[in-house]
Design goal:
alpha+beta; 5-stranded mixed sheet; 19 strands
């Protein structure tokens, strides 16, 4: 367990006003692997019209694509750390460099324990209340992320970004949302039932078609739209899975080395999906056929994805196509093989999808 008791999607802030998101659950001692999400206008600016965020603490800009990695690497390399297992530097913040912690569950409790101060918080409270009532869960099973976590959301334009803590809670929320989407009077709909959902969006993946992406996203259930009759807005409403504390077990072991071997494309059967909802998403697999790459690809035992596109992408006993980085995990107890889907030069060639789709 990390020394400051932080987990995926918790927010941390440095003295420069750089806002990081804790990434995953496995970290070196007294350090947290992160994504850089936002930075104060005092240290960063962006011409992207989507980037500005204004709140009580001033103006911030959101990082898109690899902007955060480039900014940190070039301007603040002290916020990179050596990942001993990978043998390379990644974005990370040492505990003593953290000046503020933003806990999603704490912020949500504050936002729901008082009368709403604006129309977005009002809509969020009613959205959450409906899902709690339908699923039998309590507010303590949830948190907030994104601009709502950091206090620079826009009441008329921002989305409702919620976290669901725990495997069982995630299953119950997904089942409840499916029921709500089927009830046309509920005010809820599946974001990816909209035939225009990808209109105007640039699609860059080479081996994963936009239609395939929509098919997979639709069945995940966590991406919805809350039709708020009170404000007249149709508000995107997400329920992102994060592990409960008793489900977290760190895999970080500096004595284990992850060695990138080749590029691999295989057809495989999913044998385990319990870690699929989280980041990293881990799938136990049984390879069926090597489509390209080394024959040792038939020894792969799991897929590890750090990409949100491939979270909850497949379920147990489904046949999938996997393409990505073929790696050896060399541990003291022995070696094993995996496919990793992550930031890399061939980012948009990676895929994990149900095989033989007709969409």
């Amino acid at each position: 367990m990390a020394s400051l008791n932080l987990r995926d999607r918790d927010g941390i802030v440095t003295k420069e006003g750089i806002i990081f998101r804790i990434f995953g659950y496995s970290h070196p001692r007294k350090t947290h692997i992160c994504d850089a999400e936002y930075a104060s206008a005092n240290v960063f600016s962006s011409k992207d019209p989507r980037a500005p965020r204004t709140g009580e603490d001033g103006t911030f800009y959101k990082f898109y694509d690899d902007e955060g990695w480039k900014f940190v690497s070039n301007k603040y390399p002290k916020y990179t750390i050596l990942h001993e297992m990978l043998g390379q530097r990644v974005v990370g913040v040492k505990d003593f460099d953290i000046v503020e912690i933003k806990k999603p569950e704490t912020v949500l409790q504050r936002l729901t324990s008082a009368p709403p101060k604006d129309e977005l918080i009002d809509a969020m409270q009613r959205d959450l209340q409906t899902v709690c009532k339908r699923s039998g869960l309590a507010k303590s099973n949830f948190g907030v992320f994104g601009s709502m976590l950091h206090g620079f959301y826009h009441p008329k334009f921002s989305d409702i970004d919620l976290i669901v803590y725990g495997m069982d809670a995630n299953k119950r929320v997904r089942a409840s949302l499916e029921e709500l989407y089927d009830d046309r009077q509920s005010g809820f709909s599946n974001e990816f039932d909209n035939p225009l959902v990808m209109e105007g969006k640039r699609w860059r993946f080479r081996n994963f078609a936009a239609k395939e992406f929509v098919w997979h996203q639709r069945r995940k259930q966590i991406y919805g739209v809350f039709n708020d009759s009170k404000s007249g807005r149709k508000i995107k409403s997400e329920f992102e899975p994060v592990k409960a504390w008793d489900e977290i077990e760190s895999e970080y072991d500096p004595k284990t080395k992850i060695i990138r071997k080749d590029w691999l494309k295989i057809r495989a059967r999913v044998t385990k999906d319990t870690e699929a909802p989280f980041i990293p998403s881990v799938y136990g697999i049984e390879p069926l056929e090597v489509l390209s790459g080394p024959r040792t690809g038939l020894e792969v035992v799991r897929v590890v994805s750090y990409m949100e596109e491939f979270r909850m992408q497949a379920w147990k006993d489904e046949t999938v196509i996997v393409e990505g980085n073929f790696e050896e995990v060399a541990a003291q107890k022995g070696s094993s093989f995996q496919v990793a889907l992550t930031y890399c030069p061939r980012y948009y060639e990676q895929t994990l999808k149900v095989a033989d789709l007709r969409v």
